[in-house]
Amino acid sequence: MNVSGSQGFWRVWPERRADFAALALVVVLGLVARGVAILVLKDPLAPFSDSANYLEMARTLAAPGGMRDAFGNAAFFSPGYPLVLAAFSLAGAKLGTALALNLVLGVAAILATYLLALAATRDRTAALAAAAAFAVLIPAVAGSALVQKENLSVPLLTGFTLAVVILLDTPRPRLVAGIAGLFYGAGLLAGASVMLTGGVVAVALLWRKQAWRETSAAAGVFALAAAIVIAPWLWHVDRTLGRPVLTTNGPFNLYVGNNPAATGRFVSLRDTPLGAQWRVMRRRDGELRATDRLGALAVAHIQAHPAQTGALAVRKLALFWLPDFPDSADQSHGAAITALRWADAVQHLVIVMLGGLAVMQWRRRTRAERLILMTIACFWLVHAAAYVMPRYRLPVLPLLLVSATAVGLPLVRRYARMATRAVPV
């Protein structure tokens, strides 16, 4: 007998209800893990640290002089996280409200990872596996205890990628392109490292193979939506500093990553040829002109040493994926922290290896999975310009988990079937 209508719904509901229950369990697992991390890994909020700067920016958002960081800069740090924190902190931007916001963003990231994996693989088990992996991903869990912009960048980039994947087959490309534009614009405010990822929207639209007019219209809606999000901030910076820029730290980071003392990782300006002159420049020239001068010094160094710059860029790209092995500072915090750091390194190696396998199986991957890999690559390549830190790769780890799950789960199923056949009856 064919089952349709409400009867069909009630027949399918137990399976769907089990899926919802499993997803809810994953979310609870992620919340518990992050709650424990917040209790154990207390952010010391050192003066002038990134955490202190984000809190100061959120606190001063409505102040007479406008949003400023702890150094008095108007647009040095990315504004996205402090803007969201200020909106979330009805009782004032404090450490406790920032950590509560991180929990909310963590749940959003887990759900976005599930939806992205489901859209890319059409496999609910794979989607649950990817979401569960992110729920206990050590850098994401530990990051929830810190006041850092990556807590916001993760759900925004995952949401953007989900919209791009949906864009492949949706009957409403303009609407979905607009949603992708909103995520992209918000992502730019949270961190400029996503700037190249907008290119995957063009790839998705071209893969739809629609009429040029419809493709152009959807691309226009994407650009307009992104502009709507970032335009107020650019207007504010233009009024405050005299030129519309997302942040003023782009030239700063470029110099840190391209000077005679550059190593590929962060190097303090005190250890560069500029040395103590930076503070003098900053006081004399102001925020925008001082960082512009740093950018000019970086460009001059790149032009004078092209081969060295190219080799260093390759090193940065390799460092981006290098596991964050524990060091002596971690060992001083006890055996438990050291064990977690080693677990993080092993966890990262497994994910990167499976992600690399997905790249090698490019022709066997679906168009959705290829778009995810392209998004990862676009985010990764940006970091060849400046310098890298382990937390900088956090926004693409949910995407890498989806790719890893799409490759790894079939292998697990295959070996499970082989083991079952090998067991004598």
Structure commentary:
The chain is mainly alpha-helical. Helices cover 71% and strands 0% of the residues. It is built from 17 helices and no strands. Helix 1 runs parallel beside helix 5 and helix 5 (124-135) crosses helix 17 (397-422). The radius of gyration is 23 Å and the shape is globular. Mean pLDDT is 90; it is low at 1-14.
Main attributes?
425 residues, mainly alpha, 17 helices, 0% strand, disordered N terminus
**What is the strand tally?**
0
Query: In angstroms, what is the radius of gyration?
Result: 23 Å
- Percent of residues in helical segments? over 70%
- Count of helical stretches: 17
Query: N-to-C terminal Cα separation, in Å?
Result: 35 Å
Question: What portion of residues belong to β-strands?
Answer: under 5%
Sketch the topology as an H/E string, one letter per element.
HHHHHHHHHHHHHHHHH
- The shape is globular
Low-confidence stretches: 1-14
User: What characterizes the major β-sheet?
Assistant: none
Question: What number is the mean pLDDT?
Answer: 90
Structural category: mainly alpha
Summed up:
This protein has 17 helices and no strands.
